[in-house]
Amino acid sequence: MTHSAAERALTDPDPSYGPVPIWWWSGDRLDPDRLRWQLHQLYDGGVRAAVVLNLAPAGPLHGCLADDPPFASPAWWQIFTEVCAEARRIGFRLWFYDQIGFSGANLQADLVSAEPAFAGWDLRRSSVTGPGALRVTAPPGAVPVAASLSTADDTATGAAAPGAVAEVAVDASGAAADAGPAAATLTLYHAVRRGFDYCDPAACAALLERVHGEFERHAADYFGDVLVGSFQDELPAMPTWSGRFAAEFARRRGYPLTGVRLAALFGGTGQEHARIRYDYQRTRAELADEAFFVPLQRWHQRHGLLCGYDQQHPARAGEPIGSTELYADYPRIGARYGAPGSDHWGDPKLHSGLSHLHGGSRTWLEGFHSSGWGGTLEETFDWLLPWLRAGVTLYDPHAVYYATRAGWWEWAPPSTCWRQPYWPQYPAFARLVSRLCELLSLGTHECDVAVLHPTATVQAALTLDGRALPAARAAQESYLELNGSASWLRQVPGSLAAAGVDHEVVDDAAIAGGTVAGGALRIAAEAYRTVLVPGCAWLTDDTAGRLAELATGGGRVACVGAVPRGALPGNGPGWVRFAAALSAGAVETSTAAEVATLLAAEAAVRCDVPTVVRRAGETRLVLLTAHDDRTGTAQPMHGDWVFFDAHSFFDFDRYTRTMRERGYTFRPGDGERVATLSVPAGWGPAQLWDPVAGTRSALDRTITGDRATARVPFASGPAAVVVFGAATPAPPPGPRAGRVLATLPDRWEASVEPTLDNRWGDVGPGRVDPPVQTWRLAHRAAGPQVTPDALPTHGWMEVVATFGRYGSAAGPCDTAEELAGAEWRPAVYSLSRGIPNDPRHHATLGPKGYVPEEFVQLDAVRAGQWVALRTGFRLGPDELEAGLWLAVGAPGERRIGLDGGVLPAAGDGYLTVQPIAVGAGHHELTVAVRSDVDGAVRLWWALTRDPDELRRPEWLVPTRSPARIGHRFTLPGRPRRAVLQIGTEGAAEIRLNGDRIGRHGGFDPYAQNRAVRVRPFDLTDRLLAGENELLVEFVDPAGAALWVDGVIETDAGRVDLVSAPDWTIGAPRVRREQWLDPRTACLWPRPHPLPDAGWLDGRPRGAVLPVTPAESAAEAAGTQWLRWLLPPGAERMTVPVRGSARLWLDGTEWPVRAGAVDVPPHAREAVLAVSTADGVGGAALTGPIGYRTGTGEIDLGDWADAGLGSYSGAVRYGHTFTWSGPDGPTWLDLGEVRGTAEVRLNGAPVGELLLSPYRLRVDRWLRAGENRLEIVVRNTLAPYLADTTPTAGVFAGQRRSGLFGPVRLLGTAAQSATVAPKEDDR
């Protein structure tokens, strides 16, 4: 860091250090013009780089329909390179996503399908206990590796006592031994195929060729200036065995992995057991490193590109146990990346340490997915600050969406992009991020304390079946106590951070490669006088030797918690020196709290807020952050339940429900907070650098002895930078705001200025920009003769337009007979939008561009229990011209009642379709379901004239061994076009006419998840005229299931191939449980059961009869009364009703003509009476109330209190006042703002505000006499999306928007003034 470079970073930051969002190319067909338009929107928003990523690259995934065109297809490459060309033209940079980790591209599966030797292996064991002759047979497909006979019971510990285990020979199918008269345990160690072999150089070379080689072939011309790197997300776990593992282990470690030694991988607490486990994990890490990670690193180095990552949890959180189980040696592999990192559920300290110590240039943060649509820029900056302080220098916002499909497509929102109303202020936010990331990239991290990541201890004390032995647990607990948790969900400072002590996380390789000089351990450009060893039972011998050298060379080594008892792989010369230093007291022992207190007293930097220091020569930069227990987002946000490990997965449903109910608490700063910073006096003069404004000023210091103390104000936001030893003098500090000169009134002129741009259909139906709307209204039913003034004040319930009660639901009950006496509750849904706030979207992290077909949900059901829906429909004489069929989709056996009778059973599938004989009039319908599933039961029903149109595939489950399902079918002619969409749950091999055409499953991260893979196959050239056979063979019968949806066009006609109960190979049975919504896996959409729901995905209504459900003929006979507030300046209003309507505005009736009403000036409240037989509650409306607005009035406060509860956009506040104040410094203070603010005074732009305090100096534009003040406040998409979509991503408190005030004019302490409003504003 040179001072000139730092000054330039402050005043003119390099935008390449700004936000680098993930740009999801999913949700709609890619249009090059649309992508170019989006590229320019990002550029204009201050963004200069993005990561291109596909969510459903080769087939449906996470509820998202397949990307179009598929990733890496010729059409995709054409579009990608066109975008690269435009990016080069405007100076934009791109990163590509490698689709190796989190992915639906199925790349590894395709490689293994073509070359089965590329499949990975897992080492497992099977055992039998008893006397006499024993035999263990390997499971189907498994390969015996070794076996052992234990004469002691080892079922609990996993290993016998020393000397009690004997080697047993294995044969092709297993192992046999004679235990004699006493009971013994025969254990067979066998390898089973799973995933991809990341330990095989040939397999990894093929994988890198398939991904990076393709980018090199298609886009190498853009490497360096446009394509600057790649991103890898959630790489699958490294295999626990491979075809070459045993030989390589023996070659590298000097002894073979016999059956006796393999027993140690599953337990045992002796030193020899620990050494074998350590050597095993070391070998596993070396093989993966050499085969995959080193070639990946060299490829990027060869092309001058960076590689960033966010790996699987809990490795990304730095947790030693989980990271070792997944990756064998997480620090070792992380050191191969130029930009290691995590998402905001991970940990920055470990990754910034890897970057600092192993030649990385940036530290990555993917944030803040799943934080909701309503996070403001101020809140986002607050969330980012602790990560910047902990070493992050590359902020990767999650995300920017290519398409949002009328607001109904999202993936772990928000989308931080041009759709957000605050986007005009995003360039200022991007500059702020650029400024801090560049400043924090200059020089080196100055920190005296290092914490060893206890990898070696965990390697030695972690069993192959995932059990952490006491030594591993102790090391992890000590490490986390020191390091803390940085997770956005549960941020808890470790003992060091709580004491104000900064630290670096270091790994064994870094320590071994360091040198000791001047009482410090020097690694790369960093130096540490203290190294903390957290609860380690073992150290590597190299680490032990280097730490002994530090401890005896003037530095400090402190063992926190457990004290090491040996070295690995053995007690060599390094351990001898360490043990001697420990015995002599040169190596200290301490608790986390004690050592933190000691280090805090010795720290060079002491401050009452968190800090980080960067140094170049004699210049030091200190970042101070007001993100702590006083200001910022209150932490911890959630309890321990938010954490997950390698054996369980995050509960997104619980998370979503909790956040929607509780949200988070944000405490903005007030601009008055001042931090006290103490540093060595020798650091030199101090300057205060304002990261928001990009300005600097001198900062006074008080010298006491060898310490200098400065008072650091947070006058412009929650971050401040203090620079010591700067070469260029700074101007003196300016005046500070103090005394309140005037407080402006609460009521302002207001004009509502919509910002939503629907040119691409992103925020509403069609291509018309949505007007200001009201979706939420108060409702009650009353007779048509009642007038608004006679309506009771009580009994009003909130409803949402289009949603109403269309029946009643009951259950769960243990028997069908109990349903009649059960509590029946309203079944509320919308004929065009389905279930309100549909929980189906929680697991898919948001809706995916279509209305789910299931529109009734009953929760908390156990398999075998009964639930029921009671509804009905009305038919007119003209609707009886052809026969009718009743279709029902539900996950269980059903009993269907119609007009008091019970219909005969119509099959045992998820979907049943049967003819019904009914006449004109109202008909009562009851659907009772005995659930096959635990949890929620979802169902749908519809009337149709063409049952074949509704036919959908069924999930089939194999019932015989080997586990396989197949079907023989005949084609009437030569295939012209044939696509089969094949879905499997569980790993499977797919064959057509005996030839392998693909593999599914077993290649994904988070192996603990249900693995459902759906993918289209173009089989035009593989199918034959005449007989064909499709066969799917499953690796594991547990949970195996198959879904097929295909269209085959031949020269003799079309054939639909749909998995059904009549498939015979493997004797499958139907599984009525669905994978997500039934639409997700379909190759083509069938008619929607809700005939009005096709507005979103364009599917035709088809043969579904457009009936309006009603439980009884008289149910909707009453009048539906609705009440709501009008937005400011409403001039004309549209009222889309079912039936006839009467409207009152502020108590006066106004005529409704053709569904529209002219609104008188200053009208505030509307009351609507709808007479209809087709809708109850919000269903009396077919859409929202819409407005044309002009200028009106608004009070300071939440926009929802001003009739703008569904509004996302801008509001222009206006006020005219008379000023007779002094000419001195004057500030405008807006008080509380939730959103961004742009200020104009007397027609001149004054500035824009993103952060508290929302305060600007205005004396340059303020004049004596009359002044016109305008403030444009922009909010987030949360209010609009919360009401118009079933988004899972609007949390409690995030709808809150507006200028809350008080709005004041401030002067310095000595000033006084008077202000009067313009006469019209009194």
UniProtKB/TrEMBL annotation:
What highest taxon heads this organism's lineage? Answer: Bacteria
Q: Which InterPro entries match?
A: Galactose-bd-like_sf, Ulvan_degrading_GH
Stored Gene3D superfamilies:
Galactose-binding domain-like (2.60.120.260)
This chain's protein is named Alpha-L-rhamnosidase-like protein
